[in-house]
Amino acid sequence: MPKKDATAEQEAVTRIPKDLYEKELYRLQAELVQLQEWVRLEGARVVVIFEGRDAAGKGSAIKRVTQYLNPRVASIVALPMPSDRERTEWYFQRYIAHLPAAGEIRLFDRSWYNRAGVERVMGFCTPDEYQRFLHQTPIFEKLLVEDGIILRKYWFSVSDAEQEKRFQSRMEDPMRRWKLSPMDLESITRWEDYSRAKDEMLIHTDVPEAPWYIVEADDKRAARLNMIHHLLSTIPYFAAVRPPMALPPRPRSTDYERPPRELSTYVPDHAADVVAAHDAAAAAKAAKRAAKGAIQQ
To answer: If one looks up domain 13-233 in CATH, what number appears?
Structure first.
């Protein structure tokens, strides 16, 4: 089969305009705040799983979901590699500790599905452990749902060309280079292995009680809007009515006297230094232009 032209594949992606994206994102984020209040007041428990290939946009989607939410209600779970002790536990045990209590939302930035992906492809688990995972996961998730947890599972699907483009962008950006790991680069050479692992995972764990929802993620903006809109559409929340609040009048000062400022240690006014340097540079630039104009005359 002839290899796809990466440039043509990229051009085929229809990008949603930024201004339209930002307007709709803000509207959806306002709905997420309403959902949060419903979860808090109704005592609901919500688990949202974000899975997908490296650089598929999971983290940036989570960032937009949580941007205006209360971290005491909606928190992110991103577990490191298991410790030596955790490796001897039942596989799901360390994830159970992070499931929500009443009135909480847990967003899993990768999850127990590590075993179906990177552990399977890279040989970090045995064939028996992998088969046991495929058998136990639907049972485990059915138990969560039966107990009242609202479980949503999203797979962010990205093309090989788009993934490579994002990897290259990270390599060239010192602010985001930390996102790249040797494991990420290894995934390029194991693309089809990860594809087979994903397909096998979906066959065994895409069940009616806990279905997978695929998010087309070559356009990050569209992926975020689609995922958030879908999440909101699948949870029967309503706009919670908060009791009215009003600022109380500030009481008149009595005999309190603030201690002298010199008794405290304040952080240096770096912002003032930045403004001064900017103004000095602007003044020097203006003087240079004026001098150049005078010479030309």
So the answer is: 3.40.50.300
